[in-house]
Amino acid sequence: MEAESVLHLLNFLFMIITASAPAYLAFRLRGLNRRLLLLSVGLSVFAFAHSLYHLAEFLGSTDLADNYLLPLSVILLVAYGAYYGRSGA
User: Could you tell me the pTM of the whole model?
Assistant: First the structure.
């Protein structure tokens, strides 16, 4: 196994762990704070989408990863940043 493949697999696992923390926070905040709920969901969705990019790269689907999943995760990150900036958090 190449070192790059191992790194993509590790990044996939770490991004799944990273996505679970804001997802848990969003689950706990369901009715309490709408702004924090949306920020948590946005961060979790971005981290999950980016983990799919690393999984696709690990599995060898570079076309899927580079043409669809990477732009999707960038769009989600920019949307998260825009919402974060407008929310005043």
Answer: 0.90
